[in-house]
TrEMBL record:
A molecular function GO annotation: isomerase activity
Statement: the UniProt record of this protein carries the keyword Acetylation: no
Entry's family note: Belongs to the LacAB/RpiB family.
Annotated Pfam families: LacAB_rpiB (PF02502)
Organism of provenance: Exophiala sideris
Protein name: Ribose 5-phosphate isomerase
Taxonomic lineage: Eukaryota, Fungi, Dikarya, Ascomycota, Pezizomycotina
GO BP annotations, alphabetical order: carbohydrate metabolic process
UniProt keywords, alphabetically: Isomerase
Amino acid sequence: MTTNGTNTPLRIVVGSDNAGHAYKTALKEVLHKHAGVTNVLDVGVVDADDVTAYPHLAVDACKKIKAGEADRALLICGTGLGVAISANKVEGIRAVTAHDPYSVERSVLSNNAQVLCFGQRVIGLELAKKLVDEWVELRFDEKSSSAEKVAHISKYEEKFGEL
């Protein structure tokens, strides 16, 4: 994986529904140990018995990014799809579901996605740990050829507003 050479430490917000709680707990440990992470904020759920619906925690996490309280978010549900759809409803947020190294890399380097979503029922825990460890190292290069494409996404969002 490549970075653009700037590894400013990240503040990461994590969240899951009950279907992703076990992975969230394990992945928080990876983040806490990573030198590239200065803060890990957990927006829930608190345990596997908490039945709070995934849209609430996904939106809460992304509001932290929008408010400047976090740089990125890691969200987990059963498939990773519901949290990604919900996260993308917050203006300015680019969330992706990715379960392989190349997609995780491109989500940041090509798309400047701030939110990575996993499905606990889809990806193995050891691979998820590896991907999170690599994801923390990645930074979007504002001077890259992808920057103009990401700017177009933002322009569409400004034109049509929050959905």
